[in-house]
């Protein structure tokens, strides 16, 4: 990952809210999926055949769509959970060893549903979390590994291939309140970052436990018999924010995180090798996002992490160029009919399409005029 050279030990560089007009996006579609709020939208970056396919969740429904030319959005599949009181909060793409695409969803019931995208049937269900699931992410290098962040104050690592809960990140050094977001490091297989309502971001290492991860692929006994291990201590704890931290993503070895104070922050964890869990944080850059002061609003990036898109409580989207210093606001997207809080955005592989899913049950599609 080629990162801009950030000067360290200085004041963080704050981006200007004057759009650069580097990209010109126009609304090409708006869908009303239903009455219930949509909490998540995500493109499939796991499989090059399906880069234009995305999934949404809202209420007890998981829907798979395809972005076609000319702003067209086609419905491919729809899964409706048997429990009408289920409310899905998060969705991710994974696959089994044969490369079959799987949609992974979780929410208020604390059950992870692995849905076969080809048949709309439940492939597996994972029970283990003691409370609702706020985010699920997939390991890009081994897309049959997923992590889930829960209200039960834990993060769990699962193998979708074998149905095993491999590791539980919780305990003495764990989160002290709901975990709201989790992310795999892009190149270091062993590392994850999680954040939540205890206002911290914690970095965890699976290195000492990796034999269990490998064992989870060859396990033939019942998944419940697997020797699931607790990872009790993170390698680093960061107090970057003074309120709930509801989204964190790795940018190379740096971390992007946001709270409820109208900005995304880019920072570097500076670990002390002698004393795990301790160290300092260098705050590198700040990307302002006006009216982004309610919790459970998540940003998203294109495949190469060149841009981040984030919605706000007023239905506007801010698109930031991530790897320039000072940060550059690529575009500010607003539409007279888009007034509802945007819970999540999804940026397509190359950044040419941006989707948003809203509290009022709508999905909006914005396309880069130049590339369409």
From TrEMBL:
Keywords of the record: Chromatin regulator, Repeat, Transcription, Transcription regulation, WD repeat
SMART domains, A to Z: WD40
Keyword Cell cycle attributed: no
InterPro entries: PcG_WD-repeat, WD40/YVTN_repeat-like_dom_sf, WD40_PAC1, WD40_repeat_CS, WD40_repeat_dom_sf, WD40_rpt
Ranges of the WD repeats in the UniProt entry: 126-168, 172-207
Superkingdom classification of source: Eukaryota
Homology family: Belongs to the WD repeat ESC family.
Name the record gives this protein: Fertilization-independent endosperm protein
Annotated organism of origin: Cannabis sativa
């Amino acid at each position: 990952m080629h990162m801009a050279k950030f000067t360290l030990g200085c004041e963080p560089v704050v981006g200007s809210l004057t759009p650069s007009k580097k990209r010109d996006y126009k609304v090409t579609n708006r869908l009303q999926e239903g009455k219930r709020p949509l909490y998540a939208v995500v493109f499939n970056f796991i499989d090059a055949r399906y880069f234009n396919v995305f999934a949404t969740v809202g209420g007890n429904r998981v829907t798979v769509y395809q972005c076609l030319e000319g702003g067209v959005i086609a419905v491919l599949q729809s899964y409706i959970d048997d429990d009408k009181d289920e409310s899905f909060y998060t969705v991710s793409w994974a696959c089994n060893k044969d490369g079959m695409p799987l949609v992974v969803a979780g929410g208020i019931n604390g059950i992870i549903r692995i849905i076969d995208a080809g048949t709309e049937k439940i492939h597996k269900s994972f029970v283990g979390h003691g409370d609702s699931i706020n985010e699920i992410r997939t390991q890009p290098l081994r897309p049959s590994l997923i992590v889930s962040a829960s209200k039960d104050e834990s993060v769990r690592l699962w193998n979708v291939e074998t149905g095993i809960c491999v590791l539980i990140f919780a305990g003495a050094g764990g989160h002290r309140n709901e975990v709201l977001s989790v992310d795999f490091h892009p190149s270091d297989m062993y590392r994850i970052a999680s954040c939540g309502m205890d206002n911290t971001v914690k970095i965890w290492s699976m290195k000492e436990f990796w034999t269990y991860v490998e064992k989870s692929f060859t396990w033939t006994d019942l998944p419940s018999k697997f020797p699931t291990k607790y990872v009790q201590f993170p390698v680093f704890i960061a107090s970057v924010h003074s309120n709930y931290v509801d989204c964190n993503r790795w940018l190379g070895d740096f971390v992007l995180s946001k709270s409820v104070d109208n900005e995304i922050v880019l920072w570097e964890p500076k670990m002390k090798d002698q004393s795990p869990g301790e160290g300092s944080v260098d705050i590198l850059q700040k990307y302002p996002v006006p009216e982004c002061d309610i919790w459970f609003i998540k940003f998203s990036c294109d495949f190469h992490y060149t841009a981040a898109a984030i919605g706000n409580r007023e239905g506007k989207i801010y698109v930031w160029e991530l790897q320039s210093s000072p940060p550059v606001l690529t575009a500010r997207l607003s539409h007279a009919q888009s007034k509802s809080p945007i819970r999540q955005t999804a940026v397509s592989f190359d950044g040419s399409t941006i989707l948003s899913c809203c509290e009022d049950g709508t999905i909006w599609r914005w396309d880069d005029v130049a590339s369409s």
